[in-house]
Write a structure and sequence with these properties.
The chain is mostly beta strands. It contains no helices and 15 strands.
């Protein structure tokens, strides 16, 4: 189990053993240091289980790691922000498309956008582009299981916005109207079964 510790600039590592009374204990290598002042916020694994990616709130970057034998080894650190912005990144959330081809990372602060990266076979990232989230302060977002849609929430502007995802290019296109939800801070997708026959 890995836990980003924003205040300590490290990713903490734990062994998880279900048969023990105290199932969590520090791993042999108890933490992975991140760049000083980076503020690691969220970590997600690639669907193939070989790579992990951590978004850094203060540093405005995503760090890529190779995962093997319960350990993370750094392989890359790449900016989530464009060259036009030098500070106030407030990077917030990170998700990978279900097909494992693209990684998405949101920036609040000055940009209010989602950075789009392609994922290479070796786990490294390449910047594809940036998409405005059409709202203020994109705190969280999610991708539906089909990989066709991405929904982002904005607690400051109080909106949720839906984007259609191009599976070939990874790019996003806003669809429909934004939904007003005052104070919205997170989003989850639930599958509903139709009762109609």
């Amino acid at each position: 189990m890995f836990l980003p510790d924003l205040g300590a600039d490290r990713i903490r590592a734990y062994a998880f053993e279900t048969d023990k009374k105290e199932p969590l204990e520090e791993a042999e290598k108890p933490f992975i240091p991140t760049s000083l002042g980076s503020g690691p916020r969220h970590l997600t694994f690639h669907p193939n289980g070989k790579f992990a990616y951590c978004i850094e709130e203060m540093g405005g970057a995503v760090s890529a790691y190779q995962y093997k034998n319960g350990k993370l080894e750094p392989i890359q650190r790449i900016n989530t922000h464009s060259d036009h912005f030098k500070d106030n990144f407030e990077s917030s959330d990170v998700h990978i498309s279900p097909d494992g081809c693209y990684l998405y990372a949101s920036n609040r602060g000055n940009e209010n956008n989602i950075a789009i990266f392609s994922i290479s076979n070796d786990g490294t990232l390449k910047t594809v582009g940036y998409q405005s989230t059409k709202g203020n302060h994109p705190r969280t977002f999610t991708i539906d299981r089909s990989g066709k849609f991405l929904i982002v929430t904005h607690p400051v502007s109080g909106t949720a916005v839906v984007f259609k995802r191009n599976a070939e290019t990874g790019l996003l296109k806003k669809i429909g109207r934004e939904v007003k939800l005052n104070g919205v801070s997170t989003v989850q997708i639930r599958k509903y079964e139709s009762k109609q026959k």
